[in-house]
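Bug #77: duplicate submission created two jobs. Keeping one. Sequence:
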Amino acid sequence: MVQIDLSKYKGKPENIASIQKVSDGGGSLTKLLNTEIKLFERKFDAKQKEWFYSELGVLLSSGVDIKTAFEIIEQETSNKKHLKLIIEIKTDVLKGLGVYAAFEKHKDVFSSYESQSIKIGEETGKLSEVLIELGKYYTSAIKLRRQIIGTLTYPIIVITLAIFIVYFMLSFVVPMFGDIFKQTGGQLPATTQLLILISNKSSFIFYSLLSIAVLLFVIHRTQSKRIWYRSVTSRVFLRVPIVNKLILKIYLARFCQSMRLLLGAKVLFTDALGLVENMIGYYPIEKALNQAREDVISGTSLHKSLEKHKIFPVKLIALIKVSEEVNAPEMIFDKLANQYSEEIEHQQAVIGKVIEPFFIIILGLIIGFILVAMYMPLFQISNGF
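Kept job's structure:
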């Protein structure tokens, strides 16, 4: 672990910069086009940062000078926007601006955690070690994100396919049987009448569901950074059966991992809590850490502050209490991060095995109901009823 003293940096960490706004110049059409182009641009996201920090750190630790290191990275960068960003940083560094100052100019790309880490690495002569640690952090962040996506992907795909299959049957198959039933006459069973009624409204139901899905997507795209939206969605996910505990563990693992990295670098508790609050990406934990930071500044122990928030498990709070008593927070957070990672992998595998047959059974019951409701009148006709 990189041992860097950050204790002298006591300022409250800055919030992560928001996405750069479209320039005020030009007409409304130009703004619209610029906005549409930005929607499809490949951002300098976690995957690119993982590669960039790891490559730059390894090159510098191998004795390559910073100018040559940037030039090597430039040759391996194919994205024009990313290349432009790297060239700008290199140019500023070669002009004598300093590595930290060169990164700090791009607050819309690099978080306060990254900038402050680079600043201390530069001042202590351990820049390459800090860059490698940043690369490892983003490696873990990507892994956690993939675990979330992997958990939610299968249910979403199955639900979507189920909706389209049922819509096809209600819109095309059931009407054909309905015409046959009209020609034969007679009283239809209640289940068949219900199915025909649903079939007549199938287009309305389908397009209503599609409209709701589009509306939710638009709300997510436009409101995802708003506090009200993040608060509501986090509460919803905490109430979803089966996956709610897994999602919570994923963010608790990120919390423990981030605290381990920061405390291992000798960051003060208050600074560490502020930095984790800005990069955790989960509103309930962010809110709790904001309050915890104020409590710690006022003299309250971290475990006492976290006890006020139900989002943190009893075991985590108990271990943090032990770490404060023995003065070994880094070791405890390291153990917690590893334990949560193991639990996440195990629980994700179990959930995958449980969810798959569950959704197959649900889909089978829906299709079975449709088939029974369609064929029941035919059985009655064949039996002479």
